[in-house]
Structure formats: structure tokens, C-alpha cells
Amino acid sequence: MSKETAYAPSRPLEILLVEDNPGDTFLTREAFRKSGLAGRIVVAENGEQALVMLRQGRFHGRVRPDLILLDLNLPRLDGGAVLARLQRDPELKKVPVVILSGCEPENASGGMPSRRA
Q: How many CB atoms lie within 10 A of CB 82?
């Protein structure tokens, strides 16, 4: 019989959450807490703040985040522009990025036609 084991990193995960919605930030923190993953979530509320944190602030010259959770709909500098800049940076392009995006219920199909015909 195989026994499932939890992921146990040697140090807490460093996660940069780039999210301007306090409700989504709360839900993300709760999801990580309930998952049992030990992690330190640092929040940037817009794209410019995220890049400053990565290049000059909290993550500059020290451990890079293990993961970036990036909202697409951000003030000042949107997620697509942040992602493009990350991909051009030789060090930052190594950090895994997960794209997050919310939509209003009427836009939930993402522009895809309904399956009901």
C-alpha cells in the first residue's frame, strides 16, 4: 500500500501574490493555510509594486520567490505587462508564475460560445 505524504520543503515557501482585491487576497491566504503548505505570502497590490519588490525591495539580492501568483487585471501595470517584463529578466524568468484572473458572472464563459445551441 502506498502512503500519501505531504510536501515538506526545507524552508517555508516564499510566494509573491500580485493582487489588488482584498477579498481575493484573503481567499488565497486561506487556501494556503487550509492546504497545510508552510508558506510566506507577500502581497503586491499592483504590477509596479511587484516589480519594485522583485528588483529593489523584499526579494532583491536575497531568495527569490518560489512562486508568483499574478492577477491579470491590475492597476498601474497590468499582469500581462508584468509577465512580459519577468520573461525578459534572466533571473526572474526562472520563477514559476501562475496567472490568476476573475470575471463577472456574465463574462464567465471568457467569450466562448455557450454549449447550448
A: 26
Residue-wise pLDDT tens digits, 4-51: 545 556 778 899 999 999 999 999 999 988 988 767 899 999 999 999
Average of pLDDT values for 90-116?
69
pTM beyond 0.90: no
Q: How many whole angstroms separate alpha carbon 58 and alpha carbon 16? A: 10
Q: How many CB atoms lie within 10 A of CB 34?
A: 8
Residue whose C-alpha is closest to residue 69's, from 102, 91, 36: 102
Nearest CA to 28 out of 88, 70, 84 is that of 70
Q: Which of 85, 94, 13, 82 is nearest to 44 (CA)?
A: 82
